[in-house]
Amino acid sequence: MDTRVTIQFYKYPETPHWRFEGTLIGRDQWGTWVGGRAGGSARRGEEPPTTFGNDWVKLIPDDAWWTAIWNNGGKYAGYVDIIAPARWDGTTVRMIDLDLDIAMYPDGTTAVLDEDEFAVHQEELGYPPQLVDGARTATARMVTWIEAGREPFGTVAADQLAGWVAAGSGT
């Protein structure tokens, strides 16, 4: 039987943000891998659900200031959310989204997104200095890792995604 995992993002301090479910793929040295299928849904706060257009895999590292998702098609090949380290409660993982994101485009380029939102939320939401420092440090580190192809951004994530897609196609 597949283990379902609930992924719950919050905005600081704990305002519900994105919520979706996936299937536990497994754990390795990088953290916990969760997969989802095209047609699954996600919901931001009280907004109507949106539908995933592609299969995906998500990595939730232990004690890290980031989480990443890789997509089988679509606008982004992958996407890194800068977060306060994830907290697990059984099969639910909770993460505080710290606004900064890194888009990984299919052509291999990257972009840091939402720096303006991060600046506004520092004031409006009262981010403590350790959150600001953690988010900035993680963003710089992740850009370096992605651009260098450092694992899990080299072949590890691509292999996880390929395995997940193949398992869904029955091959």
Describe the structure.
This protein has helices at residues 115-124, 129-148, 156-168, and strands at 4-11, 15-28, 31-36, 41-44, 50-51, 56-60, 66-71, 78-89, 92-104, 110-113. With 171 residues, it is of the alpha+beta class. The longest helix has 20 residues, at 129-148. A seven-stranded mixed β-barrel has the order 1-2-3-6-7-8-9. The two termini are 19 Å apart. Helices cover 25% and strands 43% of the residues.
Structure described in brief:
This protein has 171 residues and is of the alpha+beta class. Helix content is 25%, strand content 43%. The protein has 3 helices and 10 strands, in the order E-E-E-E-E-E-E-E-E-E-H-H-H.
Q: Report the C-alpha radius of gyration, rounded.
A: 15 Å
Give the topology string: H per helix, E per strand.
EEEEEEEEEEHHH
Number of strands: 10
Count of helical regions: 3
Largest sheet, if any?
7 strands, mixed, barrel
Shape: globular
* Overall pLDDT score: 96
Sheet-strand content, in percent, reads 35-45%
Read across the widest sheet, the strand sequence of neighbours is 1-2-3-6-7-8-9
Task: Kindly report the oligomeric state of this protein.
Answer: single chain
Q: Report helical residue fraction.
A: 25-40%
- Flag low-confidence runs: none
End-to-end separation in angstroms reads 19 Å
